[in-house]
């Protein structure tokens, strides 16, 4: 038996169960076979009771009558934080942004799934996404973007019944100790000012094509 094997045997015991109080020269290893409670006994727990309301769906829209994505287009642009309106989709700032300039491209129709969109809606959703990227780059100098949509509650969609695509600008170093450790996002600009800057620049970048 090697010295390493002997140290492991001493640390966990002949029966494969982890011991407590092993010395510093004995490596601590958690066996995953022939051990009924070993791995579970060393896991730490992070309690997040505030997420239970989200898991249960409390406060979620139950239809187009209380869906924020259906109600927002009926508001004025400033009140609803709408950046641009298209024929079948619109662009609106996220009320709880990951980064400054985080917006969403949303169809007017109350549909849940990407496969529910018409050909026209798919085309315009893509067009407004491109315009959003060009506009945000011009206004804020974004280094990159996260673009995507969560389909269904199981995939993390906050409002699963109404499709929405996120456009999140990114900068080098925008993920630091504040959100990771402090659970705080630093947003240097109020949403109304961000909306005004993007809305004012939107038309200039709407049809510039691939050359932009």
From TrEMBL:
GO terms for MF: ATP:ADP adenylyltransferase activity; nucleotide binding
Q: Which domain of life is it from?
A: Bacteria
Main enzyme class: transferase
Where does the motif Histidine triad motif lie?
162-166
Q: Which residues form the HIT domain?
A: 68-177
Active site, per annotation: 164 (tele-amp-histidine intermediate)
Q: Where does substrate bind?
A: 94, 166
Q: Which InterPro entries match?
A: AP-4-A_phosphorylase (IPR052908), FHIT (IPR039383), HIT-like (IPR011146), HIT-like_sf (IPR036265)
The EC number of this protein is 2.7.7.53
SUPFAM superfamilies in the cross-refs: HIT-like (SSF54197)
Q: Which UniProt keywords apply?
A: Nucleotide-binding, Nucleotidyltransferase, Transferase
Q: Where is this region: Disordered?
A: 1-36
Q: Which PANTHER family does this chain map to?
A: AP-4-A PHOSPHORYLASE, HIT FAMILY HYDROLASE
The molecule here is called: ATP adenylyltransferase
Q: Which organism is it from?
A: Petropleomorpha daqingensis
């Amino acid at each position: 038996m090697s010295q390493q094997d002997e140290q492991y045997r001493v640390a966990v015991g002949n029966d494969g169960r982890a011991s407590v109080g092993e010395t510093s020269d004995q490596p601590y290893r958690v066996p995953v076979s022939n051990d009924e409670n070993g791995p579970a006994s060393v896991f730490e727990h992070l309690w997040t009771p505030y997420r239970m309301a989200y898991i249960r769906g409390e406060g979620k829209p139950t239809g187009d009558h209380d869906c924020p994505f259906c109600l927002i287009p009926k508001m004025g642009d400033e009140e609803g934080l709408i950046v641009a309106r298209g024929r079948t989709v619109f662009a609106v700032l996220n009320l709880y942004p990951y980064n400054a300039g985080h917006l969403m491209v949303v169809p007017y129709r109350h549909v849940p799934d990407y496969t529910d969109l018409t050909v026209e809606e798919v085309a315009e959703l893509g067009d407004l996404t491109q315009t959003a990227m060009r506009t945000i780059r011009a206004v804020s100098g974004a280094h990159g973007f996260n673009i995507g949509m969560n389909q269904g509650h199981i995939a993390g969609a906050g409002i699963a019944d109404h499709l929405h695509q996120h456009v999140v600008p990114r900068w080098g170093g925008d993920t630091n100790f504040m959100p990771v450790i402090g659970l705080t996002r630093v947003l240097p600009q109020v949403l109304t000012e961000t909306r005004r800057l993007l809305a004012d620049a939107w038309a200039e970048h709407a049809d510039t094509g691939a050359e932009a």
